[in-house]
Automatic annotation (TrEMBL):
Keywords: Hydrolase. One of its GO terms (molecular function) is hydrolase activity. Coiled coil: none annotated. The keyword Hydrolase applies. Signal peptide: none annotated. Residues 40-150 form the Cell wall hydrolase SleB domain. The keyword Hydrolase applies. Gene3D superfamilies: Cell wall hydrolase SleB, domain 1. This is Cell wall hydrolase. Pfam families: Hydrolase_2.
Length: 154
């Protein structure tokens, strides 16, 4: 007689299943960007900002072809601007912060190709209540949380 097979169901998003991200890695930089840009949003809102980054990586060109380059591209994600007060905060945040742990899990899924795109291909977004010049006359491809997303900006 053979021994019974034990099947263990492991949740891939479980906090206990995630190793620390290597500083400066794609996952680390994306998680810090998500925390800096969307820490007040729902998980879906954080995923939407991650989708924008990954859409830019996929398009390449001016934005760059890596997560790290896209996230740190000058004037693209304001949390990385030298004069933004969020910059110092995102550089210091650790996994002791619950929202940062969520951002790390979203970043791991995004970098690993396991994140769907709730923005319908958006490469741009802005907070509600502001209307940047590039958004004038355009219809958002998605509205998630406090952000409007656009997939028709060149």
């Amino acid at each position: 007689m053979t021994a019974p097979i034990l099947i263990v169901d492991v949740d891939p998003d479980s906090e206990s299943q995630t190793a620390p991200a290597k500083p400066g890695s794609a996952v680390d930089v994306l998680a810090r960007t998500l925390w800096g840009e969307a820490r007040g949003e729902s998980v879906r809102g954080i995923e939407a900002v991650a989708a924008v980054v990954m859409n830019r990586v996929a398009k390449g060109g001016w934005w760059g072809n890596s997560v790290e380059t896209v996230c740190r591209k000058k004037w693209q994600f304001s949390c990385w601007n030298a004069d933004d007060p969020n910059r110092a905060k995102l550089e210091r945040v650790t996994e002791a912060d619950r929202v940062f742990r969520v951002c790390l899990r979203v970043a791991r899924r995004a970098v690993g190709g396991g994140l769907d795109d709730p923005t319908r291909g958006a490469t741009h977004y802005h907070v509600r209540g502001l209307m940047p010049d590039w958004a004038k006359g355009r219809d958002p491809s998605a509205e998630i949380g406090s952000h409007l997303f656009y997939n028709d900006v060149e």
